[in-house]
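Lab meeting, item 3. Inverse folding demo.
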């Protein structure tokens, strides 16, 4: 049976992940010219040819839009997916946005970690931090939720360590901090709404196939 040709909606996290996603889509022939205008404050864009719609959201909200079906597809960092733990299908590793989730702090905090002391952990990712310390390390800690510039935590004495994303490591280095433990590798993932996956199977599968083909090409 022919699937009804409605718009397939993409939720993209504002910023670097969105530009890298658009670059990737362009390589498989899906363009969205109006989205490239950096000065634009517009939030929703369409590609009439393929009946696609794109919107920009706060990164941490992408899995929420996808779970509720406001977007059929989303691109989010694995960090966001773990932190939000939404009911969505994670269908593909897009290979960009590679970084690591780590426990970081001054070298002196290493001892506190080793001896399972009740330490303070500052993070933008309280659920990831909690899961790591409670379920993996079986260490009781106090988690303090911050909204950014988390490196300040140990510097100003708010916390002993932080749980945060490390990409190049330069933020840590410039602030006299180091990676103390590695929690997991991260990268951009494509997520799909569970109902959309059933109702728009062919279109979504075709898209996944096209992207996968492209990603598997050498170079
Ligand atoms: C992220 C992260 C680190 C930094 C890591 O912060 O929280 O601070 O990037 O990158 P690096 O290892 O290459 O230095 P982001 O820039 O997203 O801002 P935030 O501090 O507001 O979260």
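The presenter then showed the designed sequence:
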């Amino acid at each position: 049976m022919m699937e009804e040709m409605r718009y397939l909606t993409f939720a993209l996290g504002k910023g670097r992940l969105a530009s890298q996603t658009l670059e990737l889509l362009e390589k498989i022939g899906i363009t969205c010219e109006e989205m490239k205008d950096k000065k634009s404050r517009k939030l929703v864009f369409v590609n009439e040819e393929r009946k696609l719609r794109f919107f920009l959201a706060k990164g941490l909200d992408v899995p929420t839009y996808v779970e509720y079906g406001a977007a059929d597809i989303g691109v989010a960092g694995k960090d966001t997916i773990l932190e939000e733990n939404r009911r969505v299908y994670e269908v593909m590793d897009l290979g960009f946005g590679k970084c690591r989730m780590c426990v970081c702090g001054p070298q002196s905090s290493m001892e506190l970690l080793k001896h399972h002391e009740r330490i303070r952990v500052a993070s933008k990712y309280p659920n990831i931090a909690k899961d790591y310390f409670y379920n993996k390390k079986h260490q009781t800690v106090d988690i303090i939720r911050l909204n950014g510039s988390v490196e300040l935590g140990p510097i100003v004495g708010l916390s002993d360590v932080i749980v945060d994303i490390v990409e190049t490591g330069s933020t840590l280095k410039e602030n006299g901090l180091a990676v103390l433990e590695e929690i997991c590798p991260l990268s951009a993932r494509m997520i799909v709404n569970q109902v959309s996956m059933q109702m728009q199977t062919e279109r979504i599968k075709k898209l996944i196939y096209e992207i996968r083909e492209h990603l598997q090409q050498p170079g």
